[in-house]
């Protein structure tokens, strides 16, 4: 029964959230089973540029540490806010959500070249939380039954919680900074006088991720058919009925 519930919940997850969280769990499981080592996953510019270990550009976002409280804490927030974004402001806009992932990851990698950041998964989670919080400013949040506050304060509460857990503060600050850059580019600047949309999703990505296949069994409404309503035919049918 529990397996069936979990299976249904997993299948019903939106595609980007399902793909990302699954990749995170599989990567961590591979390290736990000693099939991979964290030394093969962390961000290292020298190994990437000189030895071509480009997979580190991806794996740095997938490893949250070995199974433990810190891992489960981060995965819960990653799953929750990633899903709420994908089913909320990015509903039916999967390509735009993927573009947000690519933009956020690129910005963090650029930061990581100048700051000693080895794993960027936690910063990525904070970015997701930040964007969701700024787009839902009036939502009230109860944090573990201890604190009640408006959604925009959530990233800063998580930053404080990270400090209590002994994590590096600049990781969370990186996520907040990238989240703010994305929010400003997408939600603030385009709405200013003279503003315009800076970050545009390529058409090929929309065609690849947001296909709109036609349903062969769909019967179009009269107003959707070429020529619109068949007013003349309807009038003729009414006249025939009266004659009968």
Automatic annotation (TrEMBL):
Keywords: Endoplasmic reticulum, Membrane, Transmembrane, Transmembrane helix. It comes from the Eukaryota. Residues 216-244 are annotated as: Disordered. One of its GO terms (cellular component) is endoplasmic reticulum membrane. One of its GO terms (biological process) is ERAD pathway. It is found in: Endoplasmic reticulum membrane. InterPro entries: DER1 (IPR007599), Rhomboid-like_sf (IPR035952). Gene3D superfamilies: Rhomboid-like (1.20.1540.10). It is a multi-pass membrane protein. The chain crosses the membrane at residues 20-43, 55-79, 100-133, 153-183. May be involved in the degradation of misfolded endoplasmic reticulum (ER) luminal proteins. Belongs to the derlin family. This is Derlin.
């Amino acid at each position: 029964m529990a397996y069936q519930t979990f299976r249904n919940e997993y299948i019903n997850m939106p595609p980007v959230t399902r793909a990302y969280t699954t990749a995170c769990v599989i990567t961590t499981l591979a390290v736990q089973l000693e099939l991979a080592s964290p030394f093969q996953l962390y961000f290292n510019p020298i190994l990437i540029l000189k030895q071509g270990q480009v997979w580190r550009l991806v794996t740095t976002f997938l490893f949250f540490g070995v199974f433990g409280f810190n891992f489960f804490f981060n995965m819960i927030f990653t799953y929750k806010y990633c899903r709420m974004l994908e089913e909320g402001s990015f509903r039916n806009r999967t390509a735009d959500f993927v573009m947000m992932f690519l933009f956020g990851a690129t910005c963090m990698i650029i930061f990581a070249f100048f700051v000693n950041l080895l794993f960027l998964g936690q910063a990525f989670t904070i970015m997701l939380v930040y964007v969701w919080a700024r787009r839902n400013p009036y939502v009230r949040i109860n944090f573990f039954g201890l604190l009640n506050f408006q959604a925009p304060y959530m990233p800063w509460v998580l930053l404080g919680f990270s400090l209590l857990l002994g994590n590096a503060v600049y990781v969370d600050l990186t996520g907040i900074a990238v989240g703010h850059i994305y929010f400003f580019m997408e939600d603030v600047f385009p709405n200013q006088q003279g503003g315009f949309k800076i970050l545009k999703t390529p058409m090929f990505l929309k065609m690849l991720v947001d296909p709109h296949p036609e349903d062969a069994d769909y019967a179009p409404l009269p107003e959707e058919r070429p020529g619109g309503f068949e007013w003349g035919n309807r009038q003729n049918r009414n006249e025939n009925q009266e004659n009968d």
